Amino acid sequence: MKIGYKLLAEGYDPKEIVRQAVAAERAGFDFVEVSDHYHPWLAEQGHSGFAWAMLANAAAKTERITLMTGVTCPTMRYHPAIIAQAAATLAILSDGRFTLGVGSGERLNEHVIGGGWPAVHVRQEMLREALEIIRLLWSGGYHSYDGQYLEIAEARVFDLPPELPEIVVAAGGPKAAKIAADLGDGIFNTEDDPSVLEAYASEGGKGPRYCEVMMAYAGREQDAVAAAREKMRFGLTGWKVMAELPNPGSFDAATATVTEDDIRQNFSCGPDPESHIKSVQNYVNAGFDHLTLANAGPDVDGFFEFFTSELQGPLRELKTA
Predict the structure, then answer these.
(1) What is the greatest pairwise CA distance in the chain?
(2) pTM value?
(3) Active site residue 37
(4) What is the CATH number of the domain that holds 311?
(5) How many domains, the chain?
(6) Which residues belong to any copy of the Luciferase-like domain (predicted)?
(7) Which of the residues 10, 25, 33, 37 is marked catalytic?
């Protein structure tokens, strides 16, 4: 069992995100993942720094913890040739402590370049081509690639690390799970649904299984609920909505009716460690072995102390029920 911490780049400024990465290492987390977004989900969040700059700074200020994009879309806002170069460089700067998390993206971030927003089956084919390009460039030498959607011409990544980063592919259904099995080293999800993992395994996927676990810590349960509703209610819309809305205003409208009771039903909230442990157990039962704790509560440093003293030991002992 590996336990990570979600660096919510939408909710904090870039210097604070780097500080949290350092604090997460000190608290005992195995890895951190950072959102790679252009916009925040909600205006109340108020931030969205450049993930790659924050990760590079975090690499310089940490020694042990693994760094991860959670996740990058390597098809529109970025060309996969750029991501191949960026990931290789970050792997070198971090002495091999980098994992490349990738996915097919959200309109919220990718439409900003003005290229429209393709249908989901097109986005998945683009992701497959992007991963083929990244793998090709990581093999060394000059390469060209002529896909249906993406291409490279006589491109070469000159600085490659001694050991290439793992690629973990976000998958919400069987088609994306097949991409993860075919071209990834692991799979990533945000729901405790075992069916995607079953699809991944049926296609030959054998790598690590990542999932984000939403929770909200505070000294009082009500404070945790209120903070989660203010800044993290977008998560209740579901992935099909989250992938399609274009801006924070749209998410504000889509979540206007989310209540505090809705938050309580979907987040473990408050200071009781048992409620959080019970929530994580659901993800372990589903088959995930790399769990990223995403704290929606108002007290980041309090959560780190809570993790060290109350959560870390019990979570590392969890077994499939």
Answers:
(1) 58
(2) 0.97
(3) yes
(4) 3.20.20.30
(5) 1
(6) 9-290
(7) 37
